[in-house]
Amino acid sequence: xxxxxxxxxxxxxxxxxxxxxxxxxxxxxxxxxxxxxxxxxxxxxxxxxxxxxxxxxxxxxxxxxxxxxxxxxxxxxxxxxxxxxxxxxxxxxxxxxxxxxxxxxxxxxxxxxxxxxxxxxxxxxxxxxxxxxxxxxxxxxxxxxxxxxxxxxxxxxxxxxxxxxxxxxxxxxxxxxxxxxxxxxxxxxxxxxxxxxxxxxxxxxxxxxxxxxxxxxxxxxxxxxxxxxxxxxxxxxxxxxxxxxxxxxxxxxxxxxxxxxxxxxxxxxxxxxxxxxxxxxxxxxxxxxxxxxxxxxxxxxxxxxxxxxxxxxxxxxxxxxxxxxxxxxxxxxxxxxxxxxxxxxxxxxxxxxxxxxxxxxxxxxxxxxxxxxxxxxxxxxxxxxxxxxxxxxxxxxxxxxxxxxxxxxxxxxxxxxxxxxxxxxxxxxx
Length: 430
Ligand code: SF4
Ligand code: SF4
Known about the structure:
Blueprint (H helix, E strand, L loop, with lengths): L1 H41 L3 H10 L7 H13 L6 H4 L6 H22 L16 H12 L5 H15 L3 H4 L4 H17 L3 H14 L7 E5 L7 H26 L5 H4 L12 E3 H9 L3 H22 L6 E2 L32 H5 L3 E2 L9 H10 L5 E6 L1 H17 L8 E4 H5 L6
Parallel strand pairs: 1-5, 4-5
Antiparallel strand pairs: 2-6, 3-6
Helix pairs in contact: 1-3, 2-3, 3-5, 5-6, 6-7, 6-9, 7-9, 9-10, 11-13, 11-17
This protein binds iron/sulfur cluster (2 copies).
One iron/sulfur cluster (SF4) binds next to helix 12.
């Protein structure tokens, strides 16, 4: 009896596994169709795609395939009508998903194939949520346009995002709150930070942020051979700064969060870890007198460390398990002056530059609560956190570090790293 019950159970499981397979098959079928649709679309075979979809309406079975269907209509210069979205009365959630998918698709296609410009605002009657997603797309991408086009684009977007009627019909408060976020993006583009902060404050009051999110990453295009990294580091930093400015605008983050919150915590703890390459860059840009001044400050900190732990902070190999600050000793960075200003601001290392704005592992944002609160409040309706992807830059500096390690006598180290104190004290008594 017991065995029979067990057999029955396993049969039930088989059935559910089987239906699982069927679902997988359906999903893979949908993906195959979408690939086919996209191929026709990018080849400009609009009529062929239209015929395929008209003859097989059952193939338009996902939001993505419906978005391709709509994009095809628009590319043929036609207007979307309610019938195209759903035969029955379309649900608000479907309208939202479709608007989002349509703009996302357009954005990806635009990047890849530079296809025709479409004025999605002309479709607001049928897809009112395009007011959010198309404005978001335009404001975020205006930087890619020719200078002469930018003002037109900004004016056009302004006409929509300051018109309350365009947002009045959106279904929930969170969607309506997007109007303020877009206004903040617009003001930031104009460099009107105060107006941007006010708009962000309205947005935060009206927006219920979720806890889940995904990262959207911006990265620099700058590639440099290892032996060139040190002489080019100033330029690499400029590239990083440019992309991070874009992160600030797109994520609605204060231009200078640390200053805004009057916080210098990061410069007064066990932070940051600096590579040989980055330290040499700092050193090469200091006069002899400046270097001596910072060495004296560093030596005082190192002396305290020795007094407390009986050993100095050392240069270690990052590829081994040794730690550059094993006692997690807290100290004020030798480059921070009495007015709490960084004295090497334009040459400060990547860790200082990118904290709060970057991911180093493709999964998390390295940030303090002040940044995280802003990401939480300012993320888009789709819960994106737009950050700088620092992996390529870090790898570039890593390649250079390995090379320089040999030249500078770190024969047994692949990646020499240390606190700024350890680097500054390297040639002093310690
Ligand atoms: S990053 Fe955050 S914790 Fe660090 S100094 Fe700036 S505001 Fe303070
Ligand atoms: S280098 Fe500048 S920004 Fe970095 S910890 Fe030191 S003082 Fe702060």
